[in-house]
Amino acid sequence: MGQARESSNLARLVLWGLLAVALDLPAARAESLRFEGMTLDAPVGTEGWARQDTDNSLVLRRSFPAGEGRRRAGEAIIILYRPIAAKAGAFPQVFAKAAQGIEAVAHDRRPSRREGQTVNGHPMLMEQRCCGNARNASVHTFTVGVNVGETYYFLTLAMVNLAREEKPAVRARFEAMVRSLRPREADRAFVLEPARGDGGLDGLYTSMDSGIRPNAFGGTDYYATSRVLLFDPGGLFSRAVPIGGDIAAHCAGTPEDCGTYRLRGGQIEMREVANGFGMMRTGSESFARDGDDLEIDRTRHFRVAPLPGGTTFEGSWTSSFASSGTTALSSGSVSSVRTLVLGRNGRFSRSGFNAASFSGEAGGSRSGVTVGGRRPLEQGTYRVEGYRLMLTGSEGQEETLSFYKPDGASDNLLIVNGSNYLRAGRERQR
């Protein structure tokens, strides 16, 4: 009976939070919140966020008024629930009730759930539900749950009628709030910090991943991607090359790319950040050194030496992409080509284009659309140093890209900001 009452109360709170109309809330100042014994940082009083306390929750709201390109008003709602005792039921079951929200919402996609741990070692669940409709309102939700001993903590973000371009900033605010959650005095806010005994490797290593995967048009695409692992001797690692060159700064700003590692005999233990909520996952793989290279989980990872400052190239490299597919009632395709020309004199030029087409049939009639664009030719000077390509345009504008040669001495393939650039035909080195 007690479990049913707890779950019913939680469902009513979610229902209230998602469907509540705008309230005339007083302005509030930014603060580090303490609520029911927990501490967290919240966007109160900034960017239009305001606080409302209820009997069973703390609610933060931000309104997006109609007008200025918006056809209807939108709202972002963050609900921080009062802690729930474990006697209400098993953690996954109580979490499912919190994540369910409004039973009447028919979501376009199946819920996406992830599980892991907080940086403090507490079990953690996250579920995303998109994209539902309730009372003619578009609803997109994220729910996070943390199990600390005999107590459960839940937070929900509901984005109601938000435009696609508005969602990333709202989600980032919620993610930062979750990362800062300290349920107990002994807990710490999220920080990616190696432990004593971590580390032991240094440098950039690559491996090739290729295969066939489904695409958005109902067809399949072949892909070939150069995967990277950048190790810091102190215990940090990144699955992306930091554009700024500083792995610690990159991991602080983009923790989803990063993690910590430890070598244990013939194993490497990698504890990495699974998403922006600070969820951690730990895995252990076989590990061995082979000269300058590494073998991790029976996959060879080749060491890539940083390029000396002042390194120059001569030639033209092209990156291309195409995807297409056909179903019974529709067909579509998208393609892009980008070309990078580098000279021994330190000058560069870039050009390219992209195009997309779609056609569909409904009610006996067929319609289609084709769009395309050409990237304006860009030129200027370039400089290579370490794993960075630094460009200066003809009018003084600057851009820095991640850059490396996965083939060692050969420059037939360059990886620029994660994309493969192949050297043009007759100029390819043998």
List keywords for this structure.
single chain; 430 residues; mainly beta; Protein Transport Mog1p, Chain A; Lipocalin; 3 domains; eight-stranded antiparallel beta sheet; eight-stranded antiparallel beta barrel; 4 helices; 26 strands; 11% helix; globular; disordered N terminus; disordered C terminus
| Domain module count | 3
- CATH class category label of the largest domain: Alpha Beta
The N- and C-terminal alpha carbons lie at a distance of: 76 Å
Please tell me what the overall shape is: globular
Q: Mean pLDDT, rounded to whole units? A: 82
Sheet of most strands: 8 strands, antiparallel
Q: Which helices and strands occur, and which strands form pairs?
A:
Blueprint: H1 2-19, E1 31-35, E2 38-42, E3 50-53, E4 57-64, E5 74-81, E6 84-85, H2 91-100, E7 112-117, E8 123-134, E9 137-148, E10 151-160, H3 167-179, E11 203-214, E12 220-231, E13 236-238, H4 247-253, E14 258-264, E15 267-273, E16 280-290, E17 293-296, E18 299-304, E19 315-326, E20 330-342, E21 347-362, E22 365-385, E23 388-393, E24 398-404, E25 413-416, E26 419-423
Antiparallel strand pairs: 1-2, 3-4, 4-5, 5-10, 6-10, 7-8, 8-9, 9-10, 11-12, 11-18, 12-13, 13-14, 14-15, 15-16, 16-17, 17-18, 19-20, 19-26, 20-21, 21-22, 22-23, 23-24, 24-25, 25-26
Helix pairs in contact: 1-2
